[in-house]
Write a structure and sequence with these properties.
- InterPro entries: AB_hydrolase_1, AB_hydrolase_fold.
- Keywords: Hydrolase.
- With 450 residues, the protein is of the alpha/beta class.
- The chain has one domain: Rossmann fold (3-Layer(aba) Sandwich), CATH 3.40.50.
Length: 450
């Protein structure tokens, strides 16, 4: 058996050189048309991002001049803002999941996308038996401003639908996770909420010109915590810059250096850089409290003031971290992480409080070879969410002395030393799939707040 000879240059089965050149020329001529068509179809598919991107970039300026393009903080349904009273939530299921997008995002990132990519909201509602709600907000505003509004919205939600919100779960991506943490802070410190008419004014700064009338022996009025905090069971933080974004830190440093040069071109460039929104600027050090960005030294390159916002006691936190690398734990991963949020920032030293309550419960998981956006549509991330959203609440952390409850949850090395008194994962905990890194069975747990 012999192989059939390849068609020669003059064979009728082989296109002539002229025909091949003509076909290549036609493809080249049509490339601008096909390219424009592709861009148009892509733009139509993602045109809903136009307004969120504009708000993320200059949303604070839009809101200041009451521009109709400024996004209002609201729950969303069928592409429209919906008031809490108009949700008409049924009493069952009694576990409600609230999703918050990140910078320049909107509620559709949880609901729509490529056909082969899981979208967490609809899948969780169908497979985990929960009610899913979606928040859209102006990501150009200060994180603390959106945090206060989320605190108010959740208070209104649990008041209007006590049966449907017996258990509350919050899921935030990127800036959305910081908004969740800010809302928790204002929920536990209602006297600091600037939007509350009964809130006490902030204490004046010391220094010249700070004198003013003070009521002798004035004491702030104690008010109860926000009611939604008692119903909050779990918080999932996906790619959240808990210690700030290296991109914003470098942007701020560049602006400062250009301004220090102090010539007309560099001042112009510095002014242009400084036009970015307050929400982006807050990402420099993950400022969650209004007093921090109002501080006179808020723009210091080093040692800018930052209020510690620890995890809420009695709430299970799940810190999900992306890494561009095949293996996590290196210095590159610590700084660059998923390309937008460094691995060290996402871990956030577990929110910075060395004396957290004993019932603090934090789990971390690192998903390798994932960028910041793919955390929103990854089957392994969804499997983790589904398992833990539908699982029963974990057992309460054991009591004991601080020495008995010490340990580490720092995931920079992605290992955990099992501390005495550590609560084991409940039955049905998800196994670590390929491409993820967890301590022990794939979970770094800190029920002790270490």
């Amino acid at each position: 058996m012999t192989d059939s000879p390849a068609p020669s240059e003059d064979s009728p089965d082989r296109p002539s050189r002229w025909r091949r050149l003509s076909a290549a020329a036609r493809r080249a001529a049509l490339f601008p048309v096909t390219g424009i068509d592709y861009l148009y179809r892509t733009g139509q598919a993602y045109r809903h991002f136009t307004l969120p991107i504009l708000n993320g970039a200059i949303g604070d300026q839009l809101a200041a001049r009451h521009d109709p393009r400024a996004i209002a903080f609201s729950l969303r349904r069928y592409g429209q803002d919906v008031a809490v009273a108009d949700l008409h939530l049924p009493p069952a299921p009694n576990k409600t999941v609230v999703f918050l997008h990140g910078l320049m995002g909107d509620e559709l990132i949880w609901q729509a996308g490529f056909p082969d990519a899981p979208r967490y909201g609809p899948l969780l509602q169908r497979e985990a038996g929960v009610q899913c709600l979606y928040v859209r907000y102006n990501s150009g505003l200060h994180i603390s401003e959106n945090g206060e509004q989320l605190n108010q919205l959740l208070t209104e939600l649990v008041t209007a639908y006590p049966e449907a919100t017996r258990e509350l779960v919050l899921i935030g991506h990127s800036m959305g996770g910081l908004v969740i943490r800010s809302a928790g802070y204002y929920g536990t410190h209602p006297e600091l909420a600037s939007s509350d008419p009964s809130a006490q004014p902030a204490a004046p700064l010391s220094g010249p010109g700070s004198e003013g009338p003070e009521a002798p022996n004035a004491q702030p009025t104690a008010r109860p915590e926000a009611p939604w905090l008692a119903r909050l069971k779990s918080v999932f933080l996906l790619g959240v810059p808990n210690e700030g974004s290296f991109l914003e830190q470098n942007s701020h440093l560049t602006s400062v250096v250009l301004r220090k040069v102090n010539v007309a071109p560099t001042r112009l460039l510095s002014d242009l850089i400084d036009q970015r929104s307050n929400g982006i600027k807050d990402l420099r050090h993950a400022l969650l409290v209004a007093q921090d960005w109002q501080h006179p030294h808020a723009n210091d390159v080093l040692f800018a003031p930052r209020t510690v916002v620890p995890p809420l006691p009695g709430v299970s936190y799940h810190v999900l971290v992306g890494s561009l690398l095949k293996t996590a734990g290196s210095a590159l991963d610590h700084y660059f992480g998923d390309g937008l949020v460094g691995g060290g920032s996402a871990i956030g030293r577990l929110f910075g409080d060395p004396a957290r309550p004993a019932d603090t419960n934090i789990r971390t998981r690192v998903f390798t070879q994932q960028h910041h956006g793919s955390l929103l549509s990854n089957p392994e991330v969804y499997a983790y969410l589904r398992e833990w959203v539908r699982s029963p609440a974990p057992p309460e952390a054991p009591t004991g002395t601080p020495e008995d409850l010490t340990g580490t949850t720092e995931a920079s090395a992605r290992t955990t030393e099992a501390p005495a008194g550590t609560t084991q994962a409940p039955t049905g905990a998800p196994e670590a799939p390929a491409g993820t890194t967890e301590a022990s069975t794939g979970t770094t747990e800190a029920p002790t707040g270490s």
